[in-house]
Design brief:
alpha+beta; about 45% helix; Nucleoside Triphosphate Pyrophosphohydrolase; single chain
Length: about 375
């Protein structure tokens, strides 16, 4: 685009956004902490889901000081069900660093904010531009799609090697006088109008600037690299009953689902039955011998890069004393106390069947 075309693009986009933007709570504040929380939640989670979590989270942790003083288990419990728990752990740790190193104020400088746990280029650009008016672009999936169609970018949108090209394109059209609204407008355009499928091209306020529209190539963009097949992992899990309580274990703080509680179990080996795997895993992981009473259910759950098929068994304690290999903590808890602990979504999927089974079993 020429300088005049870029100015016209910026003016048209921001005018459209002012009239058509969704009324979302994080758009009604300039508080950097509140904006930061929203942007962390919005990574890989839909707006409709985030709305409920956002209100509940800020109701409990209304400031960086509140978040810093909270136990990680409480933070994870408030995050429970939204997934990608590393976001919550990083936000909690980052808040502690802000209190310690920045006197409780979100740093305005790119380098200082970018160094915090969980703060990548996207979150840094979003928070600093929206809260402080700093002239940094924001590049998420919606923005990549808009840029690809505007400029006929051949770079694959799902390749990390393409980020420099997308960043250059975003910087070229960024409204540096009003970067916060401009960035939000770009994301909103991608979410509401320039959609992946069935985009509203004919009514799009920006179609006079869009090379893909003008050349009838909209559905060719964005370009993407083909993904391979999603791996599937089979897992056996045991709910061990002992004197009216069940055993739960806590995962180490790092890695996938770090810090969450779960029922013990693990991978089913090739040639192994789920029942055999359950007994073996419980002996290896918690050092208990059990008897399988019932196959409760089979759960299917998808993560970002793989999916699991989980066979869940209800078991009776036979012998042994808990010694952990892998988990970092354990509890024997009553079923009605399970709600006090943060669990992965895959475990929540069989909670109703477990409660029904326990009721029929008599506790």
């Amino acid at each position: 685009m020429t300088r005049d075309q870029t100015a016209a693009f910026q003016k048209t986009l921001i005018a459209w956004y002012a009239t058509n933007r969704r009324d979302l709570p994080w758009r009604n504040t300039r508080d950097p902490y509140s904006i930061w929380v929203s942007e962390v939640m919005l990574q890989q989670t839909q707006v409709a889901t985030v709305l409920t979590y956002y209100h509940n989270f800020l109701e409990r942790f209304s400031s960086i000081e509140d978040l810093t003083g909270a136990d990680l288990q409480e933070v994870l419990k408030r995050w429970e069900g939204m997934g990608y728990y590393g976001r919550a752990r990083n936000l909690h740790r980052a808040a502690q660093l802000v209190m310690h190193d920045h006197q409780g104020s979100v740093p305005k400088a790119w380098e200082a904010f970018r160094r915090l746990p969980g703060v990548g280029d996207y979150i840094a650009g979003a928070v600093l531009s929206i809260a402080f008016g700093a002239p940094y672009p924001v590049i998420d999936g919606n923005v990549k799609r808009v840029l690809s169609r505007l400029r006929l970018l051949e770079a694959p949108a799902n390749s990390s090697a393409s980020i420099r090209e997308f960043r250059k394109a975003a910087e070229d059209i960024l409204d540096r006088r009003n970067p916060g609204n401009f960035n939000q407008a770009m994301m909103e355009l991608g979410a509401l109008v320039c959609r992946p499928k069935q985009p509203f091209c004919t009514t799009c306020p920006m179609h006079n600037f869009c090379l893909a529209y003008m050349t009838s190539r909209v559905m060719e963009f964005p370009k993407t690299n083909k993904k391979g097949p999603t791996p599937q992992i089979r897992i056996a899990v045991g709910v061990i009953f002992k004197k009216g309580k069940v055993l739960i274990t806590r995962r180490k703080a790092e890695g996938l689902l770090g810090g969450l509680w779960e029922f013990p179990g693990g991978r089913i080996r090739d040639g192994e039955t789920p029942e055999t795997a359950c007994k073996r895993e419980l002996k290896e992981e918690v050092n208990l011998r059990i008897a399988i009473d019932s196959h409760l259910c089979r759960v299917r759950h998808a993560y970002t890069h793989f999916r699991i098929v989980m066979d869940v068994f209800c078991c009776s304690y036979v012998s042994g004393r808990v010694r952990l290999k892998g988990p970092v903590d354990h509890r024997w808890v009553s079923l009605h106390k399970l709600g006090d602990y943060p669990f992965p979504k895959a475990n929540h999927k069989f909670m109703p069947q477990l409660m029904k089974y326990a009721s029929l079993r008599g506790g």
